Amino acid sequence: MNFEERFDWKLFFTLCLFLTISCVALYSAQQSAQYNENFMFKQLIWYGVGGVVIAIMLYFEPDFYKKISWPLYIAGLIVLLALILAPATVAPVIKGQKSWFILPGFGSIQPSEFMKVFTILILSNVITNHHEKNKLIHIRNDLVLLGKIVGLTLLPLVLIMQQPDLGTALVFLAIMAGMIVISGIRWRVILPIFGTVILTGSVLIWTALNFPQLLDQYLGVKQYQLGRIYAWLSPQQYSSSEGFQLIRAMRAIGSGQMYGKGMGERELYLPESHTDFIFSIVGEEYGFLGSCVVLLAFFLFIYRLTTIASRANHKFSTYLMVGLICMITFHVFQNIGMSIQLLPITGIPLPYISYGGSSLLAFLIAVGLAFSVSYHHRTFMFGEE
């Protein structure tokens, strides 16, 4: 087959749709944002860089990414550790987080965004190798594999929590949960663990809402650190602090009603509207219909990724695609959910639409892996390699 027949044009179309939505939303955001910058132009540059990266990645088969998964993972851990140890001149604390390197003449780079993809690669590699070496179904093998998945996820997770970056940490947990579910570990092993985690989380949340002093006494969690949870449940009581962005976001989305106010007709000022709260711009200017277009675009995108995963003829490719789907789906659900009070505010971007060089490039690398799996899926016609 030639290039035109092997290239995934459906995936390319949805990516172009995201580019269009992002540019339109950012053009509106930069008109009233607190920054005097052309975010749309910078986003186009990052899309251009990402396009070149995807073009290069396309010609390497998934096995190549399997082989380099360990070097990428180890390099990512080293960079995360270096970020913690770096002086403030290189890695300043911004809004209470030490998550970025500042590179003169280049801008900022956030290593944790790329570490998400590296972690998905290494987990896919480890799960594949585990099943190749352990053909027998045994509870011991399940526990060993579970330990590998949890251990490899916790290493970057612990480093990221030192920044601290709770939103990104939750993404890693979502990736880990998804990989455990599809790893082949039997449900009689998974269910008790998931049940314990859910029960523990529920008890902690209930305690935080009713007896926060106990968390302070036994876990060292101060009441002010739970502000985002309180603001999520009762934003009006925290309208001048943690609840400010949530209230403004909901007002913006609600004021758009069915058809929106029109491009550039925003009336409500919202900090960080070009990054974490880009969905509020769509809701205000293009209303319910515009919001539905964004949701439909993500549905088509995730459906296409699912199709690629289902027809992949190599286990590593399947695990890789599921990990990417978990990462992107969690980002979408969390970002839009926090804008409408469905979930607490965690400060993670909307994939392919929010402004952010590191985030966008990492997501484009992720879709580059999907293009590679799709492009090379016909190499082995009668089974796995």
TrEMBL record:
<feature type="transmembrane region" description="Helical">
    <location>
        <begin position="286"/>
        <end position="306"/>
    </location>
</feature>
<feature type="transmembrane region" description="Helical">
    <location>
        <begin position="352"/>
        <end position="373"/>
    </location>
</feature>
<dbReference type="Pfam" id="PF01098">
    <property type="entry name" value="FTSW_RODA_SPOVE"/>
</dbReference>
<protein>
    <submittedName>
        <fullName>FtsW/RodA/SpoVE family cell cycle protein</fullName>
    </submittedName>
</protein>
<keyword id="KW-0812">Transmembrane</keyword>
<feature type="transmembrane region" description="Helical">
    <location>
        <begin position="166"/>
        <end position="182"/>
    </location>
</feature>
<feature type="transmembrane region" description="Helical">
    <location>
        <begin position="143"/>
        <end position="160"/>
    </location>
</feature>
<dbReference type="InterPro" id="IPR001182">
    <property type="entry name" value="FtsW/RodA"/>
</dbReference>
<keyword id="KW-1133">Transmembrane helix</keyword>
<feature type="transmembrane region" description="Helical">
    <location>
        <begin position="189"/>
        <end position="209"/>
    </location>
</feature>
<keyword id="KW-0133">Cell shape</keyword>
<feature type="transmembrane region" description="Helical">
    <location>
        <begin position="318"/>
        <end position="340"/>
    </location>
</feature>
<keyword id="KW-0472">Membrane</keyword>
<feature type="transmembrane region" description="Helical">
    <location>
        <begin position="44"/>
        <end position="60"/>
    </location>
</feature>
<feature type="transmembrane region" description="Helical">
    <location>
        <begin position="72"/>
        <end position="94"/>
    </location>
</feature>
